[in-house]
Amino acid sequence: MFEKSSWIRLPRNVLIGHGVLDRAVEAIDELHLTGRPLIVTSPTPREIAAGRVIDQFGDRGVEPAVVVVEEASFEAVQGVIEAARSEEAGYLIGIGGGKAIDIAKMASDEIGSGFVSIPTAASHDGIVSGRGSVPEGDTRHSVAADPPVAVIADTAVLANAPWELTTAGCADIISNYTAVKDWRLANRLQNVEYSEYSAALSEMTAEMLVGNADSIKRGLEESSWIVAKALVSSGVAMSIAGSSRPASGAEHLFSHQLDRIAPGRALHGHQVGVGSIMVEYLHSGENGRWSAIRDALASIEAPTTADELGLNEEEVLDALTSAHEIRDRYTILGNGMNDRAAREAATVTGVI
Ligand SMILES: NC(=O)C1=CN([C@@H]2O[C@H](COP(=O)(O)OP(=O)(O)OC[C@H]3O[C@@H](n4cnc5c(N)ncnc54)[C@H](OP(=O)(O)O)[C@@H]3O)[C@@H](O)[C@H]2O)C=CC1
Ligand SMILES: O=C(CO)COP(=O)(O)O
Ligand SMILES: [Zn+2]
Fold it and tell me: Is residue 145's pLDDT more than 90?
């Protein structure tokens, strides 16, 4: 008897392009959300973008509540939930990088309200996904949450963000190559649920980004357009899968470990990019495609070495040998790498 079923949650309105931030309230109006909006933002995006959205609401006689978060943590999520209750918010709007958007996403899931994603940086593919990613103690939780009901990505805002945030977003997309390899492996070895559609979309997104690498240049708004579309596409792949598997494999475990070992040293996307070079080496060996991943990263000015990430050898080796412990997610790392194997992978690929 056929008993399979799936429920794919996707955003309804996706606006990408020059100046779309000024149409934010118009796009939100179309969704028929009710009640007072609560804006969740972080310090810089508060200055850069949230004010413009608040003004649009003001023109309609609506005064949104605002919470400014400093870090991605469960306490911050709890704070937003409490603010939403005390301010009687009807829905949430996340304005910022991954931190603000993840927190708004997870709080709205808990409250059962709608959530709108307004990224100010093209720095990661969580801007549209139905996953929140939050560290806690020695682990990191990838939490299921409703995806945004709308995404409003203004390429002028994204292009004005520091260039490294955009290259981080590119690297997060390029890492899909190894994430999908790990997913297939986990499906073969552990019967992990796998979606061919989601995997194909995730890989195609990485292919298209690499194919357009020549147009990804500092100071060019078109770069933000290309990257924002790829981030949306990768987020959709995660929504189809119902997990972050198509965009998060061993290279993400490596990065999550770095967040513990060397917090705040480098951006999420940059760490996963470097992780991806080494994970590709583990999958395909010395003559494999790891050098193509490295070259793709280098061509968009993303880091390819420990040095460029601001890390030393020991930190990289520590993260590599302990990455398998951070979460119950089967990858090429299996039961873990020993010191010698880790050093070899990092040395052959030129990471250290
Ligand atoms: N849910 C998911 O599927 C995914 C989630 N993530 C999560 O996202 C987070 C990483 O995202 P990331 O965006 O790098 O982190 P942040 O939100 O911390 O943003 C990075 C930095 O950029 C600043 N910033 C944001 N927008 C602008 C702008 N327009 N101009 C100048 N500065 C700006 C922020 O300032 P300020 O400090 O003032 O806010 C911050 O210092 C991690 O927590 C990661 O786990 C990553 C990938 C996928
Ligand atoms: O960063 C992500 C995808 O790019 C989210 O993955 P995690 O589930 O590993 O947090
Ligand atoms: Zn990522």
Answer: no
Q: Are strands 139-144 and 131-136 parallel, antiparallel or unpaired?
A: antiparallel
- Does residue 213 carry a pLDDT above 80? yes
Complex prediction ipTM: 0.95
| Best CA proximity match to 324, nearest among 262, 266, 261, 250 | 250
Give the rounded distance of the alpha carbon of 336 from its chain centre.
25
Q: How far apart are CA 336 and CA 232, in angstroms?
A: 32
Q: Is 268 in the pocket of ligand 1 (CB under 6 A)?
A: yes
- Alpha carbon of 338 to ligand 3 centroid (Å): 25
Q: How far does the centroid of ligand 2 lie from the alpha carbon of residue 179, in Å?
A: 10
Instruction: Indicate the SS3 state at residue 230.
Output: helix
**What are 306-320's pLDDT values in tens digits?**
999 999 999 999 999
Mutate which of 39, 41, 44 for ligand 1? The one with the most ligand atoms within 8 Å of its CB, which is: 44
- Which of 252, 268, 326 is the best mutation target for the ligand 2 pocket, counting ligand atoms within 8 Å of the beta carbon and taking the most? 252
Instruction: Name the amino acid, one letter, at 230.
Output: A
Measured in whole angstroms, the distance separating CA 252 from the mean position of its chain's CA atoms is 10
Ligand (nearest to CA of 122): 1
Kindly calculate the radius of gyration of the chain based on its CA atoms and give it in whole angstroms: 20
Confidence of residue 144 (pLDDT cuts 50, 70, 90): confident
Question: Does residue 133 surpass a pLDDT of 90?
Answer: no
Nearest atom (ligand 1) to Cα of 44:
38
Is the per-residue pLDDT at 293 higher than 70? yes
Q: What is the pLDDT of residue 226?
A: 96
Give residue for tokens 């490596």.
254
| For the CA of 253, the nearest atom of ligand 2 | 9
Q: Kindly give the distance from the C-alpha atom of residue 252 to the centroid of ligand 3, in angstroms, as a whole number.
A: 6
